[in-house]
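for the writeup, i need someone to sanity check this before i put it in the appendix. the sequnce is what the collaborator sent (i think, or maybe the updated version? ugh). structure was predicted straight from it, no edits. if anything looks off just tell me and ill rerun, i have time this weekend
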Amino acid sequence: MTTLYAIYGASGCGRSLMPIARQQLSRQQLAREQDQSEIVFIDDALTEIDSVNGHRAMNYQSFLNESASTKYVQIAIANSRVREKIAQRLEADGIQLWSISADNVILMDEVQIAEGSALSPFVTITSNITIGKCFHANLYSYVEHDCVIGDFVTFAPGVKCNGNIHIHDHAYIGAGAMIKQGTPDQPLVIGKGAIVGMGAVVTKSVTAGATVVGNPARIVTTSQQ
């Protein structure tokens, strides 16, 4: 069986996730000794097959043309709207999303994470948590108990997401941001497409499309969702 895996995006995000992808593939190969596998980069700016950090790199059409019994892709694109478009293209072409997780990620009880996630080193996901597709959690981020996170949500490094928080689709949480714990009957909500700035301390719910910064976080801009 020949399986081709890919990191979609050869920029900084993709190159940072490739070592995690290698860890993931190593674990998978231990479980399936007969699997002959390779990981490549996909970069649509390329016109011919190249090499990036020791891995073959090619555009999407070249990836489709590669001979393999099964293909999986991790979308290493920071922009969540672009991630969504690529996920739709992959689905249309029958390509499966690939979830990757560093060796030292901690997952506790009753954690459900949809396909396509990328969990970087030192990420912790505690108990009774549901997370949607193509979630990115960067270095040293955590998600505490009883949180619900939507599709295409991005955590920059060092995000502190405390208990009873609901984060809707396409929200972006900046590096070092801290989100105050909600309660079971009144979760703190980060609305669809909201942006939480670097180092912000979020003490109350954020409306859809809003950008908040500071301590305590305050709205600086809003956009139509």
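The chain has a mean pLDDT of 95. The domain at 101-216 is CATH 2.160.10.10 (UDP N-Acetylglucosamine Acyltransferase; domain 1).
thx in advance!!
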